[in-house]
Amino acid sequence: MRRYVALLMSAVLVGIDQILKVLAIQYLKPVGSHPIIPDIFHLTYVENRGAAFGMMAGQKWLLVWATAIVILAAIVVVMAGKIKNAMVLFAVATIIGGGVGNLIDRVYRGFVVDYVHLKVINFAVFNFADICVTVGTAMLLVYLLFYELRHKNKEAAGETKGA
């Protein structure tokens, strides 16, 4: 049951992402940029034809296929019930949602719509789907570093003491 909830959550994230991108196209594209907090946080319309930070620009189909394979593999793992930990399941579902959101853009628009611009740190313009992928990945790293690693260290210590 949890796996279906996770995939439903992925679908909701895709929906939110696509709505935000349609709004960005409709309202931001004509003006280019709109300051929310001047010189700190702006909404800026950008058509990203590459991957993160515009890398691999012009490699649309390579990005489409690579993303599709990763998403498909993640969905298969979720549907097979291989993920037992709720945090990991939530993280993978979040990554799927973000990946699908940007995949839709690449396939149907030919570019990814970006609009979140943190000017204060001079960071690349990004979008909600990017946030989903980043948060999901960070959650997986936290799990692997602080739970899984600690759990394995405790098991190893227990095996050593018992020997």
UniProtKB/TrEMBL annotation:
Lineage: superkingdom: Bacteria
Cellular location(s): Cell membrane
UniProt feature coiled coil, ranges: none
Function: This protein specifically catalyzes the removal of signal peptides from prolipoproteins.
GO biological process: proteolysis
Keyword hit for rRNA processing: no
Reactions performed catalytically: Release of signal peptides from bacterial membrane prolipoproteins. Hydrolyzes -Xaa-Yaa-Zaa-|-(S,diacylglyceryl)Cys-, in which Xaa is hydrophobic (preferably Leu), and Yaa (Ala or Ser) and Zaa (Gly or Ala) have small, neutral side chains
Pfam families, per database record: Peptidase_A8
Pathway in which the depicted protein is active: Protein modification; lipoprotein biosynthesis (signal peptide cleavage)
Encoding gene per record: lspA
InterPro entries, per database record: Peptidase_A8
Bilayer-spanning residue ranges: 62-80, 87-104, 124-146
GO cellular component term, pick one: plasma membrane
Main localization of the protein described in the UniProt heading: membrane
Family: Belongs to the peptidase A8 family.
EC number: 3.4.23.36
Active site, per annotation: D114, D130
Protein's name in the database: Lipoprotein signal peptidase
GO MF annotations in UniProt: aspartic-type endopeptidase activity
Entry keyword set: Aspartyl protease, Cell membrane, Hydrolase, Membrane, Protease, Transmembrane, Transmembrane helix
Membrane topology: Multi-pass membrane protein
